[in-house]
Amino acid sequence: MHVLITGATGFIGQHLCRALGQDGHTLTALSRNPGAALRRVPGLSQALVWDPLGVPPDLKDLSPIDAVVHLAGESIAGRWTPAKKRAIRESRVLGTRTLVTALESLSPRPRVLLSASATGYYGDGGEVPLTEESPPGKDFLAQVCVVWEEEARRAEALGIRVVCLRAGIVFGPGGGALTPLLVLARLGLGGPLGSGRQWWSWVHMDDLVGLVRFLLTSDLHGPVNAVSPNPIRQRELAKALGRVLRRPALLPTPGWALRLLVGEVAQELLFSRRVLPKRAQEAGYRFRVATVEDALHTILARG
Fold first, then answer.
1. Would 196 be classed as within a structural domain?
2. Model confidence over 27-45: pLDDT tens digits?
3. In which domain, by residue range, is 40 found?
4. CA-CA distance, 46 to 124, in Å (whole number)?
5. Nearest Cα to 293, choosing from 249, 237, 231, 229?
6. Is 56 within the bounds of a domain?
7. Environment class of residue 119 by beta-carbon count within 10 Å: exposed (0-12), middle (13-18) or buried (19+)?
8. CB distance 139 to 119 below 8 Å
9. Total domains present in the chain
10. Kind and range of the H or E element at 19?
11. What is the DSSP string of 99-133?
12. How far apart (Å, rounded) are the C-alpha atoms in residues 269 and 180?
């Protein structure tokens, strides 16, 4: 297939492009810096310049696009100042609007749009198992996810199958959420965050990439939770990290201290989300990495 991808230079994007390139697909990236994208990202055939908040990119001169994978968005890491929150929201909402507007001008149009979303959609779910039918939360990130998905689903009116991929915490080699956790754990500071009782829904990079491959050719549409079927309490993750690294994982970080250190984004570490991949499993996707310890061993083995 000819796959158009945004966010190709990101943590997920680079892993995905490598895999899709190995599958034999032709990959075109939309990037603020096409030259850098071509140098950094394995598997890309070409790259075009685009401004997610500007004029929609002109895609008419490309060979017909079969699928679009939309990953671009401002990182949520860092202190959530008013400017940072505006960038988080606008990069997702306006960026998706710009992309869908560009797809509207094409003939033929892509068959499928896989648009990133996040398990942040559900807010703080406590102990309740969360599936794709569960309602959204009321906090900042949940409401961003709601509008983000609405913008992506505008493409349905164009005859495009739309999947909103609600990804959990992504564990993989070379970056992502695991990097700061490993640093703390190696220093013996990898104890529970807050109470440690909160559920963390995670996914190994191999399964996230595998799920994208699966969804490109399936008939699923709408929200799909991209998470392992085995969510874990945060304190159990801390213990698993300690066991794998052979380091103590006892010293907790109180919630108030975490909020003092990083501000409002601390809620993403302290919220409880027991998210399950109901629709992916019902459709026949089989997860490769079942447990957090399996994930940690495979990631550390790859360096």
1. yes
2. 999 999 999 999 999 899 9
3. 2-234+263-301
4. 41
5. 237
6. yes
7. buried
8. no
9. 1
10. helix 11-22
11. HHHHHHT-SSPPSEEEEEEEGGGG---TTSEE-TT
12. 12
Can you list the positions of beta strands (E) in the chain?
2-6, 26-31, 46-49, 67-70, 112-118, 129-130, 161-167, 169-172, 175-176, 199-200, 202-204, 222-226, 232-233, 274-275
239 in any annotated domain: no
Q: Give CA 239 to chain center in angstroms.
A: 25
Q: Extract the tokens encoding 105.
A: 């001008």
Q: At 94, which CATH number? A: 3.40.50.720
For 182, half-sphere exposure in the C-beta direction (CA atoms, 13 angstrom radius) is: 16
3-state helix, strand, coil in the chain (%, to 5): 45, 20, 40
CA 224 to chain centre: 12
pLDDT of residue 247: 83
What count of residues does the chain have?
303
| Domain assignment of residue 243, yes or no | no
> What are 161's two structure tokens?
């199958």
**182-199 tens-digit pLDDT:** 888 887 778 889 999 999
What is the structure's pLDDT at 125?
95
Instruction: Report the relative pairing of strands 26-31 and 46-49 from DSSP bridges.
Output: parallel
- CB of 164 within 8 A of CB of 149? yes
Average pLDDT, the chain: 93
pLDDT at position 122: 98
pLDDT of residue 303: 60
